[in-house]
Amino acid sequence: MTARKAKARASKDNTPVIDIAVENGAWNAKDDEAVVCRAIEMAASMSNHDVAGAELSIVLTDDSSIRAINAQWRHKDEPTNVLSFPAPAPMPGAPRLLGDIVIAHETTTREAEAEGKPFANHLGHLAVHGFLHLLGYDHESDADAEVMERLERDILARLDIPDPYVTRD
């Protein structure tokens, strides 16, 4: 099922180990993996969480797979752009796991086209968004959403990605 798997360990401070599985041929594995790693590395460097050496996995998949995952875990029988699954606290001596992020190619493509933005920018935003969920951020309340979105904007600005929350005419 996995078309390609890559593991990246960046040399930058506070960077987690990123394991990427590409499960669908629509992904441009090399370029899309680079976008995701760069986004996660920037988010990690700008977070106040210690994630140095912690592990996370990212699955680049399709709408069919993410729909099944969404139905099973969130009871929503529809595809979505990104899902995050934070790992439970590790047992003493066990590897530090942050969790899993799953991103669907077709939904990401549709949203980028509908919003008139480059695919790579939207993918970078989804990777940052998913990563922040692994760190405990959410958008369940307006106040929480404001905090999370402000951090996303700051991270994306450092990546030269325009504010994804600006309403476009």
What topology, given as strand order, has the largest sheet? Answer: 1-2-3-5-4
H/E element sequence: EEHEHEEHHH
Radius of gyration: 15 Å
Number of domains: 1
Helicity level:
40-55%
Q: Got a strand count?
A: 5
- Give the rounded overall mean pLDDT: 90
Give the strand content: 15-25%
Number of helices: 5
- Low-pLDDT stretches: 1-5
Quaternary structure annotation = single chain
CATH class: Alpha Beta
Shape: globular
Which structural class best describes the helix and strand composition?
alpha/beta
User: How many strands, which pairing sense, and closed or not: the largest β-sheet?
Assistant: 5 strands, mixed
The CATH architecture classification is 3-Layer(aba) Sandwich
Short description:
The protein has helices spanning 29-46, 63-74, 105-114, 119-134, 142-158, and strands at residues 4-9, 17-22, 55-61, 82-86, 97-104. The protein is of the alpha/beta class and 169 residues long.
List the helices and strands and how they pair.
Layout: E1 4-9, E2 17-22, H1 29-46, E3 55-61, H2 63-74, E4 82-86, E5 97-104, H3 105-114, H4 119-134, H5 142-158
Parallel strand pairs: 2-3, 3-5
Antiparallel strand pairs: 1-2, 4-5
Helix pairs in contact: 1-4, 1-5, 3-4, 4-5
Protein described:
- The chain has five helices and five strands; from the N terminus they run E-E-H-E-H-E-E-H-H-H.
- It has one domain: Metalloproteases ("zincins"), catalytic domain (Collagenase (Catalytic Domain), 3-Layer(aba) Sandwich).
- It is 43% helix and 19% strand.
- The longest helix is centred in the first third of the chain and has 18 residues, at 29-46.
- Residues 1-5 have low confidence and may be disordered.
